[in-house]
Specification:
heterodimer; A: about 300 residues; globular; B: about 220 residues; about 90% helix
């Protein structure tokens, strides 16, 4: 069992898993979102107090819940990457980070539009809003730390530490801002036993949450596949898998190499790696692409 | 033990000989606080109401400014590699370095704080609460901040990134500290806030040295 799980540390195995899962996630996401949103926006009964404007709950609540969920998933991936040295775990981490950040933004945005008719203001320094805003900052911190490093392996580890520090902090932040100020209505569906929402409103909400979760998974899988291919472009398994597509990749690499070569001609100080690329500037482009690919390989 | 002592003495000597660098965050601290009465208006009631929060925000910002010194020079001149190779565990050296850094940066802040309490018209009770929260909160800033410094030490332009990473993490501390000062201004007890800050401090002292040591190894690659 353990050995089987560990085999997904290999990029090619992880890529295969992504391929298998992608269509399932896509199917659940599309059907879930269509059913949930049409049911929620079109057929669910009106709220006796909030009228039709409560319907934004079908976007707001799933995105708010899953923004948090995506952060936890990211931190778990970081832990796996740091403890068991999985390269693919860091790839997953950075694949899901922008998705989670966008979810956080959606929840803030829709919440703001909900707040205007309900509370009469676009923004209020309420506990949940503040906590969500801080969550967005934590996401942006992880992403900007990752992009600051050139060596992506190092970047993954550094951003992983930051993600774990953040996930330890989220409960503390939540608790502290809750104590600090509260205006937001209490949680609607997590009350154990008797949720304070009518079942005909609850069902579309649950379907929407499922659809959003699958959608996040779908986008993350696509991003992760891209990440794996980009990082492993020079590995033989990519060439084997994309017999034809690899020609394209090579063409791209060629274009890159040429661009690099001209840039290098003007640059003053360059590392030895670039020096070799420079020397090859006039040689045939194919050899050049290989050299470049090798350099990238060493870096990743 | 001797190794830790020598790390401590070296850091103290370095900080003492680079007094100018030590003074800059302090001057920044005073300047930021001077800006608030100018911007908001000098009425004593207003200043008293915002005083605790202003001092805390300024303290966090000025500590962030000086924080890079914690590992930057050691990273640049290679001492850090020697620490990693030495038989003394890295996390213990890290604890000593963080504490030394805290000591060298916080003592001047403490010395100057009565003046700022006068500037912002704080009552004596608020001043006592401010001192207590600073005493418990600033080591927390140093320990958590150490993680950020260790992560960004290898980057060329780590300064702004450091602030981006750390400021969200300090928000709970800021909330509890300012709420303690606010309670003090209304003559209410504020033990619970102090206890929470102390709890956070102990938690971070227990865990962050390991995280800092790991991050330093990542940065050293």
């Amino acid at each position: 069992m353990w050995k089987w799980i560990n085999s997904f540390a290999k990029p090619e195995k992880a890529y295969w898993l992504c391929d298998v899962l992608q269509n399932w996630f896509a199917g659940v996401a599309i059907t879930g979102l269509i059913i949930g949103i049409v049911w929620g926006l079109g057929y669910a009964p009106q709220d006796y107090q909030q009228g039709d404007s409560f319907r934004i709950i079908y976007i707001h609540v799933p995105s708010a819940i899953l923004a948090m969920g995506a952060y936890v998933a990211m931190a778990i991936a970081a832990l796996v990457g740091i403890v068991w040295q999985w390269r693919t775990a860091f790839m997953f981490m950075i694949a899901i980070a922008p998705v989670g950040a966008v979810m956080t933004f959606i929840s803030l945005f829709t919440g703001s539009f909900w707040g205007k008719p309900m509370w009469g203001t676009w923004w209020i320094w309420d506990a949940r809003l503040t906590a969500q805003l801080i969550l967005l900052f934590l996401y942006l911190g992880v992403i900007s730390l990752y992009t600051a490093f050139e060596d992506k392996q190092q970047a993954g580890k550094a951003a992983g530490v930051m993600a774990m520090v953040g996930v330890i902090n989220i409960p503390i932040i939540h608790f502290s801002v809750e104590w600090w100020n509260t205006l937001h209505q209490g949680a609607t569906i997590t009350k154990i036993g008797k949720p304070s929402i009518a079942p005909e409103m609850l069902w579309p909400l649950l379907i929407c949450i499922l659809g959003f979760a699958a959608f996040i998974g779908w986008v993350t899988i696509i991003r992760m596949k891209n990440e794996i291919i980009m990082r492993d472009l020079h590995r033989p398994w990519v060439a084997q898998r994309f017999g034809v597509a690899n020609a394209n990749a090579n063409a791209n690499a060629n274009a890159n190499a040429n661009a690099n070569a001209t840039a290098n001609a003007t640059a003053t100080a360059n590392a030895t790696a670039n020096a070799t690329a420079n020397a090859n500037a006039n040689a045939n482009a194919n050899a050049n692409a290989n050299a470049n690919a090798n350099v990238e390989g060493k870096q990743s | 033990m001797v190794a830790l002592q020598s790390v401590f003495l070296k850091d103290v000597a370095l900080a003492y000989r680079q007094r100018a660098e030590l003074m800059q965050p302090l001057m920044f601290f005073v300047l930021v606080i001077t800006l608030f009465p100018l911007a908001i208006g000098p009425s004593p009631e207003t200043l008293q109401r915002i005083g605790g929060g202003v001092i805390w925000v300024a303290a966090i910002l000025s500590l962030l400014l000086g924080m890079e010194r914690m590992f930057r020079d050691d990273f640049a001149d290679g001492s850090l590699e020697q620490y990693m190779l030495s038989p003394t565990p890295l996390y213990m050296i890290v604890v000593v370095k963080v504490l030394t850094h805290w000591l060298m940066h916080i003592v001047p802040l403490f010395l100057i704080s009565p003046l700022l309490a006068l500037f912002l018209n704080l009552t004596f009770d608020m001043y006592v609460a401010l001192m207590l929260t600073l005493l418990l909160g600033t080591p927390l800033i140093s320990f958590i901040g150490g993680i950020g410094v260790a992560l960004t030490v290898g980057l060329h332009r780590g300064g702004v990134l450091l602030a981006l990473l750390l400021i969200p993490i300090f928000i709970p501390l800021l909330i509890f500290a300012t709420s303690a000062i606010e309670s003090a201004s209304m003559l209410l007890p504020y033990h619970s806030q102090l206890a929470i800050i102390a709890g956070l401090l102990l938690f971070s002292v227990a865990l962050s040295p390991m995280a800092i040591a790991y991050s330093l190894k990542v940065s050293q690659n």
